[in-house]
């Protein structure tokens, strides 16, 4: 599969957030505890609403709103409360298949929802959506929560959705028909008889399996050298990242994490690795799980080419609350094998190279190929 030139703008890439998905029993938000007095105001508000609101209301919606507001108070863009429908859609997205229009977007530092990739042959691509477009509304509705915005775009296959976006300071609205979107997180090509190029676009449920298949495919074609491309990879599932890292590392630590109490957990690679000589490409949009992989490989002697990565070095755990809803919460930060923190710092490449969008060349890829000669 031929990989084109990647022209993404430098924005916070959080399309997929690194973190183990934890399925568990019910977790109470407002159980009995020493903090009851602190949250008694919520109960007071509910009782007043229940006694005085002039019309009927949805108690479940009221609780959902309270839960969302509680988590929003953290002012952490990576933490969120999801109701049952939102959580189910989120899980489908991680599995790599959903019905929608085929775009991946993120939230930038100013709170804008910015398109970072458009799936090939998707409704969005056919409608002319481009990377860098700022999404502002779905079917005329505005959302201040990224998960809710994404959920509004997705829907039943064959139904229509109107998307409003801004490009070049001009507002546009287009209508598209949703279709089933199957995500592929791995793309590969042979650059010459002995050099392969594999790009990881994210870390979703089937990434490790796809990557292993791609690796075997390029070896069968005679590959002896590899460019591993992590540019514009916003991260994803930590376990998928560890499985990919295992293809490049001997037995040892891939990454370790620490929680607020200093408790440390290590994620390990098993013995054995590919024999392909490898150079890694990164840029300012490589984030989260992509940074974990890049840092681990750098600490184990692989050279990195490109620009310093974003610096999203925290991990979310997603917990099923028992009633179908879920809490996605930042619980840890991670560290490279040598102990370097990544959060807010990023991973600096060994060879700093900027890809010039005004040229047809891929300067970063060219540098990687130069190093492999």
Keywords:
alpha/beta; six-stranded mixed β-sheet; 9 helices; disordered N terminus
Task: Describe the 3D structure.
The chain has 373 residues and is of the alpha/beta class. Helix content is 27%, strand content 28%. It is built from nine helices and 19 strands. Strands 1, 2, 13, 14, 17 and 18 form a six-stranded mixed sheet that branches. A hairpin with a 2-residue loop joins strand 7 and strand 8 (170-177). Helix 6 packs parallel to helix 7 (238-245) and helix 7 packs parallel to helix 8 (289-299). It is globular.
Largest sheet: 6 strands, mixed
Shape category: globular
Percent of residues in β-strands: 25-35%
From the N-terminal CA to the C-terminal CA, the straight-line distance is 23 Å
User: What are the low-pLDDT stretches, counting only 5+ consecutive residues below 50?
Assistant: 1-35
The total strand number stands at 19
- Return Rg in Å: 22 Å
Please tally the helical runs, counting DSSP H or I stretches of 4 or more residues.
9
Percent helix, as a range, is 25-40%
The H-and-E topology, N to C, reads as EHHEHEEEHEHEEEEEHEHEEEHEEEEH
Structural class: alpha/beta
Mean of residue pLDDT values = 85
